[in-house]
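Hey, I'm writing a tutorial for new members on how sequence and structure tokens pair up, and I'd like a real worked example in the thread rather than a made-up one. If someone can provide the structure for the chain below, I'll link this post from the tutorial.
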Amino acid sequence: MQKRIGIIDLGSNTTRMIVMGYTPHHSFRLLDEVRESVRLAEGIGADGRLQPAAMDRAVATMRLFHALSHSEQVQTIVPVATSAVREAVNQAEFIARVAAEAGLAMRVLTTREEAYYGYLGVVNSIDLRDGFTIDIGGGSTQVSQVRGRGFLRWYSQPIGALRAAERFVRSDPISNKDFRALEAGVAGYFAPLDWLSAEQGPMLVGIGGTIRTLAEIDQKMHNYPLDRVHGYILARERLEALIEQLRSMDQRQREEVPGLRRDRADLILPGAVILAHLMRRGGFEALTVGGQGLREGIFYEHFLVGEQPPLFADMRGFSVQNLARIYNYEALHAAKVRDLAFSMFDQLRSLHAYGDWERTLLGYAATLHDIGLAVNYYDHHKHGAYLVLNSALQGFTHREIALIALLVQFHRKGDVETGALRALLQPDDERRVLQLAALLRIAEYLERRKCQVVQDITVEIGDPVRMITRTIGDAAVEIWDANRGSRLFRKAYGRDVEII
């Protein structure tokens, strides 16, 4: 029976809950996600006390999330709190209220735990082996160093988008004086951080609502073709230009910026300044945006139970299998299509000259080629491409996701057209899709009845190319269908093909 877990992250600015359905080590999917702008850290003064109005908002939200969890038949609820509660002198009073009024036993994370769970969320969803993560919250910012996919060290400071706004911003639009104070204040918090450097790890990954919002704004400004921030590359040059634009706007104008939630309009500039400072300090020209963080990191401890640390050994391969399982793919059929496509790919290397990267993408596309059947048989190739583009494939660049989606889309019919996805591709990718899709299409036709009657293929390269099938029964239907659908091969390789 599939398990359900609800993970609540009570942050300094926003409270979020995810509900995950999962079978440990097998498959999982996001069932629900809800957020509420609570602003728990709002108004905290020199005495370090959470304010009554902020606590009231937080307790009411926790009560609501608890009720929602029960309605969704969640068996396990994991509520955690971060910097606002961690640093509050009236922490015990607040925790007692949450227990009494919302029925939840709140766990307050240490700075190390907050950084660690953010690291788990990143390294299980982005191909980060050596580099750094930045997590900008409302009340604090965590920087972690990753080496060999391991959690090496972390640095945490009690400065986030909300606290920076309250401490340094007194004008709207922000005055030059306040902006200089904001930059100087942020620099002061991170002055001891001497190990953040692109020379020690070339990849930088950013997580948290501030960074995701900055990515969404940048995507809207430049008409990005993929509605997906996870894996998006945000250039520092574009971030700096965005900061200059935001400086000139008042709050009402910022509320109208595409991609920017109204409840973040007063916080986005301070958060952007923190991010820009850290990128400049470390010498990073670009940032990879992560869509998974602390909540997902906690989930992976439950999903990968028994693993220490809880990391996917093959994140990309598992993610493809997970997506296929979610949509109830036919494993034997998909495996045979993959093996036939691999066989043709390997024997045709002298014609296409591709390597292991293309071979691997071809295999992933073969595994996923029929997931669109979960929507409908008709146009299932298009439905499958949509699912690939809009599902949480982990560890892939946006270019790779576009390539896999295109291979799925053209696995059964039609001429290859990259369309709006062209902006994500390299100049030679249309040819790459054409040649790989031609092999996937023949492999699919040779598995027409999904009974593995065609066992293998021997390729004789000439003009025409001859493909000799080894069968375990009558394969007349498969041979007829494959020859009938081989036009794409002729277009891709410039040679006729004969399948016998």
